[in-house]
Task: inverse folding
């Protein structure tokens, strides 16, 4: 309508020359401008209405997308949790003492948590084990540490599972969904770490502490007993070197073995575990070279089997040796010696029970690979000292 009025006015002006140059021409021109402004106003208004509707639609669409994203995130988290629960992990033993005993050797899940809390702070700054001093430079491990992405409790659990069940590294790595090489580095690093930490947690007990926890059966018969010792042999792979074959061959076991000296307190606590030696070494030599004699004090006594001919090593230290009496030149033992033998046998059996406890860690019951010889001493040490978390053996 507006354009029609504008067109008629324009025709009128053109048909009347008086108006073209007169006042009316100015009026018509002003009318044209007003109509144009009105038209622009209408267009702007209409456009503004459309934009407002589009903005509102866009906001609603964005809100809908945000809700969809939130829903998908919740589904991903749920599926991730289901996947983690399906994989082998520390959650399998959570709150279950029976499973904790089976998979870790520790008596309860609470003790597993306490041990984890004890080592967690240092474990966060743990440096990867680079190999023993005798390991060649080309064999030393270095580089990235992918197992650092695992939580401390999961790392500890992965190590204890191998010790307890005696699984090969490839099996445990598959159970924890990680490369075998990464697990190998994790296991070696943690074994060395646990050896140091357990040594601090269970130091060599003082004379006063041994006396304080001395069982009545020892107080009545052998009150000065400081340690009960025995040796353990673990079968190992046959070395390729002829020299090492000779050093590790045990005439007692008729195979290649590693030999370890073990000592417990009268209460049954494991207090000493030597480094691993070749199976050929004698009980006397391993006792002399293991460092045990440096821990004994004047007035102590050591209880052992009659195979430990170490009295000449202990006497200069003022330490007494309690072993079953030997037959000597007599054809039979006197009644007094028989009684002594019986008493010592009844008490010395506890060190064999301690060894039996440690052998619950199945890794000690298998043929030990030569490739793990660098950490063999640490593995044996950790297995034995982990048994100290169990109930007291002698009461």
Result:
């Amino acid at each position: 309508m507006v354009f029609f009025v504008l067109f008629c006015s324009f025709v009128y002006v053109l048909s009347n020359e008086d108006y073209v140059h007169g006042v009316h021409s100015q009026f018509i021109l002003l009318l044209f401008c007003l109509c144009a402004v009105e038209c622009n106003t209408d267009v702007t208004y209409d456009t503004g209405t459309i934009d407002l509707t589009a903005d509102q639609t866009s906001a609603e669409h964005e809100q809908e997308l945000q809700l969809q994203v939130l829903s998908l995130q919740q589904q991903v988290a749920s599926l991730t949790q289901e996947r983690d629960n399906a994989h082998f992990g520390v959650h399998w033993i959570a709150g279950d003492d029976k499973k904790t005993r089976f998979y870790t050797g520790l008596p309860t899940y609470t003790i597993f948590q306490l041990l984890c809390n004890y080592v967690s702070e240092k474990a966060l700054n743990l440096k990867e084990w680079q190999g023993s001093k005798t390991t060649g430079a080309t064999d030393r491990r270095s580089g990235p540490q992918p197992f650092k992405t695992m939580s401390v409790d999961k790392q500890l659990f992965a190590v204890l599972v191998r010790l307890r069940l005696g699984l090969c590294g490839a099996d445990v790595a598959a159970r924890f969904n990680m490369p075998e090489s990464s697990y190998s580095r994790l296991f070696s690093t943690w074994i060395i770490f646990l050896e140091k930490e357990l040594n601090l947690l269970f130091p060599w007990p003082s004379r006063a502490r041994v006396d304080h926890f001395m069982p009545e059966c020892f107080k009545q018969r052998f009150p000065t007993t400081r340690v009960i010792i025995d040796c353990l042999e673990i079968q190992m792979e046959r070395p390729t070197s002829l020299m090492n074959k000779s050093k590790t061959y045990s005439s007692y076991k008729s195979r290649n073995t590693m030999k370890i000296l073990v000592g417990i307190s009268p209460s049954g606590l494991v207090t000493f575990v030597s480094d691993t030696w070749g199976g050929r070494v004698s009980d006397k030599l391993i006792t002399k070279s293991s460092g045990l004699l440096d821990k004994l004090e004047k007035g102590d006594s050591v209880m052992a089997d009659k195979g430990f001919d170490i009295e000449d090593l202990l006497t200069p230290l003022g330490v007494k040796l309690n072993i079953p009496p030997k037959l000597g030149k007599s054809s039979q033992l006197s009644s007094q010696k028989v009684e002594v033998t019986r008493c010592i046998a009844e008490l010395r059996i506890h060190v064999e029970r301690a060894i039996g406890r440690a052998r619950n860690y199945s890794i000690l019951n298998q043929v030990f690979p030569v490739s793990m010889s660098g950490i063999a001493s640490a593995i044996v040490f950790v297995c034995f000292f982990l048994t100290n978390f169990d109930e007291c053996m002698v009461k």
